[in-house]
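Sequence design from tokenized structure. All designs in this work follow the same two-part layout: the structure record, then the generated sequence. An example of the structure record is given first.
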């Protein structure tokens, strides 16, 4: 299938598909005319990439995980569980930092609002 067909089937822009390929997340073959040709597994690969991106994983990590899928779905092999747990813990840490920043900003906004009202 050509890149335009893959784009229509997956709902992912051609530009993003090229980016995914450039990042090594999946591959294509080239036709004699130089056009990208994707195999029948490409839509499933794109779906997996989109799922992992939605989970907040960077493309570097996704590239490492792509060969580790078990079956046709989004389940990964047990050998990557520690890697996933590390990513999960890093996400928890970022959430905690953002929560602290939000609280601090809320405090500043509240104090500033009170000061503006008392002027």
């Amino acid at each position: 299938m050509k890149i335009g067909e893959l784009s229509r089937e997956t709902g992912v822009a051609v530009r993003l598909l090229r980016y995914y390929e450039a990042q090594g997340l999946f591959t294509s073959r080239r036709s004699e005319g130089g056009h990208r040709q994707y195999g029948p597994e490409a839509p499933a690969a794109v779906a997996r990439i989109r799922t992992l991106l939605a989970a907040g994983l960077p493309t570097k990590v996704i590239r490492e995980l792509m060969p580790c899928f078990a079956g046709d779905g989004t389940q990964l092999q047990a050998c990557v569980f520690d890697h996933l747990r590390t990513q999960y813990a890093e996400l928890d840490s970022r959430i905690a930092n953002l929560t602290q920043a939000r609280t601090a900003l809320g405090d500043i906004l509240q104090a500033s609002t009170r000061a503006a009202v008392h002027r």
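The mean pLDDT is 92. We note this feature because it recurs in several other targets discussed in the main text.
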